[in-house]
Design a protein that fits this description.
Blueprint (H helix, E strand, L loop, with lengths): L2 H13 L1 H14 L11 H8 L4 H9 L4 E6 L14 H11 L3 E7 L5 H4 L8 H16 L6 E5 L5 H10 L6 E4 L10 H12 L5 H11 L11 H11 L15 H14 L5 H4 L2 H14 L5 H11 L6 H10 L14 H7 L1 H11 L8 E2 L2 E2 L6 E6 L2 E6 L23 E6 L2 E6 L9 E9 L2 H9 L7 E5 L4 H4 L8 H9 L4 E5 L12 E6 L16 E5 L4 E5 L2 H6 L20 H6 L17
Helix pairs in contact: 1-16, 5-12, 7-8, 8-15, 9-10, 9-21, 11-14
Length: about 600
Amino acid sequence: MNSVIKDITDRIIARSRHSRAAYLTKINGAQIQGRHRGALACGNLAHGFAACGVEDKEGLSSDVKANYAIVSSYNDMVSAHQPFQYFPDLIKTEARRQGAIAQFAGGVPAMCDGVTQGRAGMELSLFSRDVIAMATAIALSHDMFDGAFYLGVCDKIVPGLLVGALSFGHLPGIFVPAGPMASGLPNAEKARIRQLYAQGKVGREELLEAESKSYHSPGTCTFYGTANSNQMLMEIMGLHLPGSSFINPGTLMRDAMTRAAVAQMQDAPALGEIIDEKTLVNGMVGLLATGGSTNHTLHLMAIGHAAGVKLTWQDLADISDAVPLLCRIYPNGLADVNHFQSAGGMAYLMKELRDGGLIHDNVKTVMGQGLDAYTKEAYLEEDQVTWKESTGISHDKNILRPVSAPFSYDGGMKLLAGNMGRAVIKTSAVKEKHRHIKAPAIVFSSQDEMLAAYNKGDLEKDFVAVIRFQGPKANGMPELHKLTPSLGVLQDKGFHVALVTDGRMSGASGKVPAAIHVTPEALEGGIIARIQDGDLIELDAMSGSLSLHVPVDELQSRAIATADLTANNTGMGRELFSSFRQVVGAAETGASVFNWDVEQ
């Protein structure tokens, strides 16, 4: 085992000793000898199977057959989740064939960040993760189940499902993906059209045509953002079946994988036993080795807390220094996840990481003990999934490389610290010449303010854009992707530009250096609220520093800036989340509304 990874794991175990023990005590206490529904009174049980067919009623009343919950994020608004429309019937049919029963226990909300980008609805996005966790708990609260299938793919949905599932960690659980859409317009061309639109060189009609050719069918968007980072995490942490993450929907293999998940459930261990310190370290390693989404600097912290494991940004930063970047997937390269799958996919990646001593092999997964099954490739033989030894060869080293010859010797994510607080930056898509910038600040209280200045031509110079009052307490910490094309245009013109914000950029963080998730946030009185136009800011992603070059006495004498946030409090359902904004925690602890300070 790599000594750095081992040492970090050991310190996480030591730090989490009491909280992890309390969590395990909780889930062990929830385990009941025999079927859970055996503890229900007759009236409770009758309600539980009243809508079932005769065969399932008999099975449920006899208290012999296993009963599995289906918790799904199906809707027609999210392309990645639309295929889930057909999964429950497939799962129910296969469960009966296996001598078990499956019930659709509940749905969870699933919003599309691609639809809400730059809109008021985006201010509900991060909070939706915790709503999904609560909805998952409600679905499972009937206490009639012996295991659960979790159907989700995208940004906040999978972390929310997992946080909710960990409250029922005594149950086995398998995450079932839907897969990516087929490749559409190449990502480089999509980015080019977006920048042309930002420059006013093409109109809305041309932009919409390009976007429609990129996002064109059911399935996950094919760039390596949060949704596909979720799928990688579920597989490397052993919650998916091996090789299931990136199989296109509507294929025979996709359906066969779903059936195989049902067959595997009877042998799967309790989910709370799978998600432990070593498994979470494996997830962090996978995130960094693939150049995954910065949203997981929030989600992994929340998932860890839900399992009694205390992770920090320092853990991620230290792992990043030890883990090589093995993948180039857009926005960190030109390929998409379908190309990644064709190049060798998760089997190749996990074999390289395991053989290189970078991930723990002595972990539990839904397949049992160890990661051997996850280093094999999945094949379809007579409608059944079989796994065979991988060739151990990358079929395209422009996309997927071995540990011995990586794209970079670090994982491309850094912790930034200094007199402005703490932040994270994703550097895997940022050229080395852009990773250090020292320039005057231009301060804005919203992304629309910055875009207005850009459209007026006021930003044709070197500067650091400070977008504040975008933290979880201010307005739910929306993603600020409306800024990406304009900042990219300015950088391409030769200006030295960067972004500093207490908001998010997520998996699409690109070629412009962006210090995000600044903590403490502006509304909490963080130093970001004292910055003024013209202040010199230095962002050094090489050394991991974020500095405001203003004398301490002057800085402390300044009033803390305020912003009119009343518009964030109403409309598009935001008024329903006022209590969330009041109690949400800091970004570094996962920006969650749950009180993780209380031992499990």
